[in-house]
């Protein structure tokens, strides 16, 4: 049985809604976004405060580009950010009505393709998970409400995603060569809020470890869960915040788990109890994570 790890904030910065933590595999530093705070953030080794790139629209997620810099999926489309100059340009318009939806969680598949899902402002099942094919976004999974939790198995043959509002994590067979998924099925399911019962939270962002276990942040559940390929929860790490949003693995050995968290729209009593709400949390784990793939897009 693993001991409960020491959990520390990454510096003094607090996000409104931190998301998309990304350990950059060549720069060896952590990036993330603050969605309503409209910032892309970067923590360099030893820095207490992050570097920040303000955004004109909410950034849902980021990806590291093979040629340098980042892709930023914002409500108003996909943007390229040159992190050395701060210059940005539009790469692709959004594949949805930005008056009702925005981009949310996104990741790069084992072949370097970017996948990004959307979220419905009204939390209706009108969102989708998209694959970016260089020029445009093609919907691969329609009918979602809050597309989230993307992660691939170590062999690349299974793709996972979640729908936070549906309280479900899904898995499908994945063809790395063509970027197509087949046989989608429910991998794990959590109980929706039920009057009179303790609520365990809903699956938000995720990361995959080298043993093929899926780590899910449980929004309003105050923990991260390690889930075996068959869907069984094999470890739960309680966090000092109610709303973790997404884990990622990083550090020189890939064994530091960074977890973004939220404080936006949380009750005042909860925020008074949870001074780390909005921080990026960091803790050490036994099994390293899979490194992020650079996108060719
Ligand atoms: O905006 C967001 O909110 C959701 C939390 S909720 O279920 O809608 O309350 C979170 O999962 C998502 O990642 C985030 O971007």
From TrEMBL:
<feature type="domain" description="SMP-30/Gluconolactonase/LRE-like region">
    <location>
        <begin position="17"/>
        <end position="263"/>
    </location>
</feature>
<feature type="active site" description="Proton donor/acceptor">
    <location>
        <position position="204"/>
    </location>
</feature>
<protein>
    <submittedName>
        <fullName>SMP-30/gluconolactonase/LRE family protein</fullName>
    </submittedName>
</protein>
<dbReference type="GO" id="GO:0019853">
    <property type="term" value="P:L-ascorbic acid biosynthetic process"/>
</dbReference>
<feature type="binding site">
    <location>
        <position position="102"/>
    </location>
    <ligand>
        <name>substrate</name>
    </ligand>
</feature>
<keyword id="KW-0862">Zinc</keyword>
<dbReference type="InterPro" id="IPR013658">
    <property type="entry name" value="SGL"/>
</dbReference>
<dbReference type="Pfam" id="PF08450">
    <property type="entry name" value="SGL"/>
</dbReference>
<dbReference type="InterPro" id="IPR011042">
    <property type="entry name" value="6-blade_b-propeller_TolB-like"/>
</dbReference>
<dbReference type="GO" id="GO:0005509">
    <property type="term" value="F:calcium ion binding"/>
</dbReference>
<feature type="binding site">
    <location>
        <position position="19"/>
    </location>
    <ligand>
        <name>a divalent metal cation</name>
    </ligand>
</feature>
<feature type="binding site">
    <location>
        <position position="148"/>
    </location>
    <ligand>
        <name>a divalent metal cation</name>
    </ligand>
</feature>
<keyword id="KW-0479">Metal-binding</keyword>
<dbReference type="InterPro" id="IPR005511">
    <property type="entry name" value="SMP-30"/>
</dbReference>
<feature type="binding site">
    <location>
        <position position="104"/>
    </location>
    <ligand>
        <name>substrate</name>
    </ligand>
</feature>
<dbReference type="GO" id="GO:0004341">
    <property type="term" value="F:gluconolactonase activity"/>
</dbReference>
<comment type="similarity">
    <text>Belongs to the SMP-30/CGR1 family.</text>
</comment>
<feature type="binding site">
    <location>
        <position position="204"/>
    </location>
    <ligand>
        <name>a divalent metal cation</name>
    </ligand>
</feature>
């Amino acid at each position: 049985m693993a001991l409960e790890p020491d959990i520390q904030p990454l510096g003094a910065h607090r996000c409104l809604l931190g998301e998309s933590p990304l350990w950059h595999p060549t720069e060896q530093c952590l990036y993330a976004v603050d969605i309503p705070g409209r910032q892309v953030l970067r923590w360099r080794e030893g820095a207490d405060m992050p570097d920040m790139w303000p955004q004109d629209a909410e950034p849902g997620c980021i990806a590291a580009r093979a040629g340098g810099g980042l892709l930023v999926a914002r409500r108003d489309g996909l943007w390229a950010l040159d992190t050395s100059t701060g210059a940005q340009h539009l790469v692709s318009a959004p594949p949805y009505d930005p008056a009702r939806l925005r981009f949310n969680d996104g990741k790069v598949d084992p072949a370097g393709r970017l996948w990004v899902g959307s979220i419905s402002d009204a939390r209706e099942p009108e969102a989708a998970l998209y694959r970016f094919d260089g020029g445009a976004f093609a919907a691969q999974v329609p009918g979602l409400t809050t597309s989230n939790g993307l992660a691939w198995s170590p062999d690349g043959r299974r793709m996972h995603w979640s729908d936070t509002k549906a309280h479900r994590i899904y898995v499908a067979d994945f063809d790395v060569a063509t970027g197509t998924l087949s046989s989608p099925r429910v991998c794990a399911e959590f109980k929706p809020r039920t009057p009179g019962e303790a609520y365990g939270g809903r699956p938000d962002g995720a990361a995959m470890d080298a043993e093929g276990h899926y780590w899910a942040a449980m929004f309003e559940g105050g923990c991260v869960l390690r889930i075996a390929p068959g869907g069984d929860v094999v470890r739960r790490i309680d966090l000092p915040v109610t709303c973790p949003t997404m884990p990622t693995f990083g550090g020189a050995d890939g064994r530091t788990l960074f977890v973004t968290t939220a404080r936006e729209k949380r009750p005042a009593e909860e925020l008074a109890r949870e001074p780390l709400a909005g921080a990026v949390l960091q803790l050490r784990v036994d099994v390293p994570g899979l490194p992020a793939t650079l996108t060719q897009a």
